[in-house]
Amino acid sequence: MKRRSLEEYQRDRREREREARSASTSQSDDDRRELLKAHGLESLRRLRGDQTWEDWMIVGAALMVITEEAMETIGVTVWDPNNKRLVREFMSRWDQYEYQVGGNQKPLSKQERWALREVMTNPEIGAWRSTLDGYNRRKLNHPNKVIESWRRNTQTSDKEPKKPSPSLSQALKEKNKVIEQLEARNKELSEEAEGERAPLTVAEAVAALVSALEGASPEKRREVLTDLSVQLGFTVQQKKVKRRSAKKDPLQEIEDNNLWLRRLNQHAGH
Fold this sequence. Notes:
- The protein is mainly α and 270 residues long.
- It has helices at 6-25, 29-47, 53-74, 84-99, 110-121, 123-130, 134-139, 143-154, 166-196, 202-213, 218-232, 250-269.
């Protein structure tokens, strides 16, 4: 395809704008639609070899006209991409329309149609592009790239956190309530444990030792008391008992143990 000069392009553009203005004022709505679609076909033929923003806008105008026709056929007034019947009607009309470009031309992809519709229905995108200098505008012609750059330069990357559903929110509240109750109970138990671990007085320690040794054998009592006396740094003079036989007198053993306990109490009192 022969590339047009800038003068030819500007002349054709002015002619299309003049025809479009004339169509909006003097021609019927059907003629207006046919004219816009005809211009769209011309731009579709040029897109592959010389993609310009103006061509995309003209194709976008044709896309919106075909969208209007599809909505009128279905009987709706708002475009809804989730309306399968509406989408099928639009695609049927668009395929027939785009087929007129010729079999050698690559049709617009689903992503390109979406981006073109987004540009046509969101004036902020075109307004942002118009603020760029000539060099950057020439780099941004394809709708996909324009939308990508527009989002990157005008929208923050931080996404607003999703609000939980009412049922999930209630479940979270109940869960948090249980957690708070458990934490409060743990705090109470910790305080109780701290109180229970308060240091014993000497008298309490001796009483606890005596109580613990009540059921112990004489040998065990002697072993414990001897070890304790070593740790305390004193010794007890034991009364020597003449052994008449190898067998110890049980009463003497008890008396000796009681002597140990009395001495231990006296030492604790000091």
